[in-house]
Structure prediction request, 185 residues.
Amino acid sequence: MSDTVAVPANRYQEKFGAPSGRAVTKVVDHLDDYVRTFIAKAPFAVLATADGDGRCDASPKGGYPGFTKVLDERHLLIPDVRGNKLFQSYENIDGNAHVGLIFFIPGIDYTARVNGTAQVVDEADLKARGISMEVFDPDDNAALLQGLLVEVEEAYPHCPRALKFSHLWDTDVIATNVENPPVSR
Prediction:
């Protein structure tokens, strides 16, 4: 199995400089031990898709840590729990199989990123693989519908800068937002 994915130079690197050190070698074509372990501990991910015309969508996915199943070094299986029934991601995948995922663990500033292609699998396939709905607080609408089988093309840990800059896990910021929500619904 190949290791490092060659990331072609682009005009922004020409303008601002090429990546160096770990950034050059961290992108691999499979799920290494670190990324597999991270995904197994992650209760939350964001799935990015685009339709055949390039219109994008980002969809949150969540459940018990490890709700996304690592099948092997090249495949993930994400169960779909019934939600708003808009199905934008699945419609996009029908026209453009490329997906991007970013996995989060609360309180951890690093993330894990995975890019690849996906196909929709039905509930029978999930059951045959022993995949079930694994969420903390299921509501009356919660049900396992289908899933996504992702073939990995790139995977890597992502540095903590954005999460540190945002103070996303800062307990004082969280407490303030709970006490005085910055937005209302």
About this structure: The helical segments are 11-16, 22-25, 33-41, 88-95, 123-128, 161-166, 171-179. Residues 11-173 form a domain with the Pnp Oxidase; Chain A fold (CATH 2.30.110.10).
